[in-house]
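Worked example 3. Consider a protein that binds zinc ion.
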Amino acid sequence: MIRPFEYEYLDDHTVVVYTTCPSCGHVNCTEVSREQLWELEFAAENPMKGKLIQNILPDHSPSDRECLVSGVCSTCWDSMFPKHGVEDEDDREEDEE
Ligand SMILES: [Zn+2]
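Given these inputs, the predicted complex is written out as structure tokens:
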């Protein structure tokens, strides 16, 4: 599920992971801890045993996690899946009033 990615160490604890968007070619970087990188690599190599990415990176935004899973950047993600969720609910409430 998680594709191979490039990364470099910022310091002893922090790693910057680079992913390239398959749709537009935009390079996205996401900072994770070294332990989180290990968990991500383990999950990529052991899809049945590894943790889910939302459990590895609970504090990252959904778009950051999506970059690591599929590489798709937030811009392309938004255009593939236009407005849904919270904003739609707000619109509906306004319509009812
Ligand atoms: Zn993109």
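Take a moment to read the result before moving on. Residues 6-96 form one domain. The mean pLDDT is 84.
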